[in-house]
TrEMBL record:
The keyword Repressor does not apply. The keyword Transcription regulation does not apply. The lineage of its organism: Bacteria, Pseudomonadati, Pseudomonadota, Gammaproteobacteria, Chromatiales. Keywords: Membrane, Transmembrane, Transmembrane helix. The chain crosses the membrane at residues 7-31, 43-61, 66-85, 91-112, 124-142, 148-167, 179-203, 229-249. This is Spermidine synthase.
Length: 255
């Protein structure tokens, strides 16, 4: 019989995993539209979008202070670069600058808090899950099966959540031996900073995204896909969390 404490922990776990899944699904939906506008093919865009979305979500889920440090670095570096140099700066320049600032802030955070090497291991677990799940979605798209953003986002989150729990413990043990503690937090902050900076550049740093120079209604398309991606990820995250709990995984112990 489930007592009050266990029920509370289960509800909180479902809520956290549902929100994390919603974030992952929304990121996936938005990034896929942006990558298609940049010229990636119909099967390449879900693969890259799934890997990036899963990696970012894993970082925020398991290492919120480190991820927030990286996000702050990305905002400061990208906005500062656009103010000082204008929109003619390329994506690589802004993302690279933000990554360097993120590396610095991540190192400073690790030095101040004596953080463990888990942020990088968990981020890599998210990246691994995103690559596998993205490959599945890309294969479905390449085969001509289009199920819509809602279904693809739910499927992505289910696969990423399962692979994250399976791969995380294996990667943590090896990550602590292979990567220095300070470097682990710095790398995660740098990755998040570069992603945030790239998003800001896409929104305000360039007027056109299409390779042929034509204008795209990109923001409108992203806004249309975000609700489906968020809802699919939300339901997928809560559903897989319940299944994993029933299978014996103690997800509340890893938040």
């Amino acid at each position: 019989m489930i007592n009050k404490d266990k029920l509370t922990a289960l509800v909180m776990t479902l809520l956290v995993w549902g929100l994390a899944g919603g974030l992952c699904g929304a990121l996936f939906a938005g990034l896929q539209q942006v990558l298609m506008a940049l010229g990636l093919t119909a099967w390449q865009s879900p693969l890259v979008a799934a890997a990036a979305a899963a990696m970012a979500t894993a970082a925020f889920y398991s290492a919120m202070p480190v991820a927030l440090s990286g996000a702050m670095a990305g905002v400061l570096a990208s906005v500062g670069s656009l103010i000082l140099a204008g929109p003619q700066l390329g994506l690589g320049t802004i993302a690279g600058t933000a990554a360097l600032v993120g590396l610095g802030l991540g190192s400073f955070y690790a030095w101040m808090t004596d953080a463990a090497g888990r942020p990088l291991s968990r981020t890599l677990a998210g990246l691994l899950g995103g690559l596998v799940a993205g490959a599945v979605v890309a294969a479905l798209v390449a085969s001509g099966r289009s199920a819509g953003t809602f279904v693809f986002a739910a499927l992505l989150v289910i696969l990423v959540g399962t692979l994250f729990e399976v791969a995380e413990r294996w990667l943590i043990g090896r990550g602590r031996r292979l990567v220095p503690v300070d470097l682990a937090a710095a790398l995660v902050a740098g990755l998040i900073a570069s992603m945030v900076a790239a998003g800001i550049w896409l929104l305000g740093g360039t007027p056109t995204l299409a390779p042929d120079g034509t204008s795209h209604d990109l923001l409108g398309q992203v806004h249309r896909e975000l609700p489906s991606g968020f809802l699919g990820g939300l339901l997928g995250g809560a559903g897989i969390a319940l299944v994993l709990e029933l299978l014996g995984f103690r997800l509340e112990e890893h938040r």
